[in-house]
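Progress against Task 2.4 (sequence-to-structure conversion) is shown through the following example record, which the project officer requested during the mid-term review.
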Amino acid sequence: MLNQRLQQKLLQKLSPQQILLMKLLQIPSMALEQRIKQEIEENPALEMPESDDNNQDEDDFGEMDDSPAGSEDEAESDEFKESSPEDEFDFNDYLDEDEIPAYRMAANNMSPDDDQREVPFAAGTSFQEFLISQLGLIELTEKQYQIGLTIIGNLDDAGYLQRDPDAMTDDLAFSQNLEATKEEILEVLKVIQDLDPPGIGARNLQECLLIQLRRQEHKGREIELAEIILERHFDEFTRKHYDKILKKARISEEDLKGVIQEILKLNPKPGDSVSETSRLNNYVIPDFSVRNINGELELTLNSRNAPELRINLSYLDMLEAYSDAKHNKGKEAMLFVKQKIDSAKWFIDAIKQRQNTLYLTMRAIMEYQEDYFRTGDETRLKPMILKDIAEKVSLDISTISRVANSKYVQAPFGTFLLKTFFSESMQKDSGEEVSTREIKKILSGFIDTEAKDKPLTDEQLTEILKDKGYNIARRTVAKYREQLNIPVARLRKEL
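Structure tokens generated for the chain above:
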């Protein structure tokens, strides 16, 4: 049975403006610049004012023109404004913009005398292309050449062959209709392993290091011993069981030191050393800048975070012109223009709110960690969590998290990710609360100054920290050590 009834519900829904603001908050300055360009392309009612240089040129030109023709131009412009908008602008032309030929959209307004500034970019070849160029210089059959291309195509970024030769036989059969045995693939693999850089085409680290040692031109006693140790005692060497190596290889400690020095000269990732120019340099553009000027901290926001945007005046004129339209076409045009203008206003407001939120959040962080920003000493960092800053600026924790996760601040002593200033608190024996980052800094200092032949174990580090007043468990020390990317004591040992 069908029936109708009224029902009231309380729902929480995010408005489009709030969703837009949240998305803009979590992107850094460079991504914001691209997002603004995308919005301007999609919404013609939004525009960015021209540079001041162009405006200055226009102003200078206007001041030079003292003839009475200026009044005539004003009269002509007034006459133009009084003309009917339907005569000057046909909305159907705008809707059919996809049908405009490309040659009508092209403009060639550059003079041969104009200064054309182009941004250079780095271009280079990958190590696979470098290997293919070498492979072409070797006398190979067509079948061997195709096998070589397949092997090179299966090398990872470090230059290792991760694909099994048995699987490559199937690859060649299915993709190139080429029958090749495992022996033929291994034969071509030896050819590739003779290419530069040494160690390329290895199937594991042991093989990579041995290839480089065997290609040494001047082989001394250390090189020969290094080959023997890597061939027979590779597991013990990687685990730094030097005592076992000394017994099994029957060599002196001085010989082992020379072997270690020779092995440390080798490249464990030969693929990374081929083409430095092919890599893109990733530069961090800070969102904030903190400067210490005569003892006072000054916070500035990157200008990319505060672009100057405005509504296109032509669209405002169109909205006014079509507001009194009585026919359907005019009403549809008015709705379209109004939608674009409203969308542009929302975007401008969201950018302003983003700018204000970023500044307030960073200001609160700077004031909270004032001692650190003045000195640069990590031990002066206070324990700080997202909730502390959220309460200080009266914003939600999720908003602070979006600001902190992807923003960088430039201080007098370096550029840092904002979230690195947040850390948990821990209480010392004296009752004082300290940051866990301070403990990590002290822990790292102890490891840096330890005796390399007898590195400190986690138990010893725990006892040292307890003597300093930091009463933490051994498993906590191990966790902090792993977060600092410091290996265990046995792997830090040096002869």
